[in-house]
Amino acid sequence: MFMIEFWSRVEGLRKAVSLTRKELSAIIAVSQKTVDNWVARNIIPAGDKCLSISSALNTTVEYLLTGNELPLPDDDYVKDEVKPLLTPKGIITQKGEEPTILVPIAPQKISAGRGESFLPSSEYVGYVRILQRMARGIEPERLIAAIVKGDSMTGVQIFSGDVVIFARGYLDENGLYVVSLRGEVLVKRMEFDRIHNQVAIISENKNYRPITVDANDEGVQILGKVVGWVHCHPY
User: For the chain, what is the domain count?
Assistant: First the structure.
C-alpha cells in the first residue's frame, strides 16, 4: 500500500529541489520516456535505480518506498555494533557524535525575494538533519524546514535553494524570522521598535527596501524564528 505513493513522494521531492523530470532521468541514467512510463504505470524501478533516485533527491529508499525516514548514521563514524538512538523527541545520538535532530521539510518554498504563497500542508517531502545545539532550548516538535527561493538574503549567505530551519511560534528579540506578510511568506530580518510599536522587515540585499509595519497590523504574522540553515548554493 505504501509503495503506491512512491512516485508521489519522488515528484514532491523533485519539485521541492527544482529538478525537472528530464534532469532526474539524466542523473539516474535512463531516458525521460522511461521515467514517464514508470510514473504513468506506477512501476517501482529496480533497486539500483531506486538508490540513484533517492541519492539525487537527498533522501532514502526507505522514505520513497514507505514514507518513513530512518535515521542513518554517517558511514565515516559508524563502528561495529554501534547503532544510533532515536529519542522520543526525534533527537538522534551516535557514539562519538554530537546529538542531531531530524527536521521535516515542508513542500512549499519560502521566498527570500518578493514573496510566494505558502499553503499549510501535512505532507512533508523529506527531512534534514541538524545539530541539536542549533535549536538549544527549543522543543524539536516546533522545528520545520523549508527551501528558500529568491535573492534578498544573500547578504547573510542565504541563497536560493538553501534549506532554512525555523521554530514555529517562537518569538524572541531582533533576528531572522519567517513571516507572513499579506499572505506571502518570507524569510527576513526583523527589528522590533517597541517605543513606536512598529516592526521593520529587512532584506539583506541592497536591491530590496525595508518595510515598516505597525506591530498590530493583522496582515503580518510571525511564523517562527530562524535557528539556522543548510547552505546548498552551487559554487
Answer: 2
Q: Write out the three cell numbers for 154.
A: 544573500
Show the cell assigned to 143: 522545528
Q: What is the pTM of this model?
A: 0.59
Q: What element of type H or E holds 145?
A: strand 143-149
Same domain, yes or no: 98 and 60: no
Average pLDDT over residues 85-98: 58
Identify the domain containing residue 198 by its residue range: 86-230
Report the CATH number that the domain containing residue 40 is assigned in CATH: 1.10.260.40
Residues 105 and 211 in one domain: yes
The CATH number of residue 220's host domain is 2.10.109.10
Please check whether residues 132 and 50 belong to one and the same domain. Answer: no
pLDDT tens digits, residue range 168-224?
888 888 999 999 888 788 899 999 999 999 999 999 999 999 999 998 898 888 889
Instruction: Determine the Cα angle at 153 with ends 109 and 213, to 5°.
Output: 85
Which residues make Cβ contacts (< 8 Å) with residue 154, sequence separation at least 6? 204, 205
**142-145 contacts: CB < 8 A, separation 24 or more?**
142/167, 142/168, 142/169, 142/170, 142/224, 143/101, 143/103, 143/167, 143/168, 143/227, 144/103, 144/104, 144/105, 144/106, 144/168, 144/224, 145/103, 145/104, 145/105, 145/106, 145/230
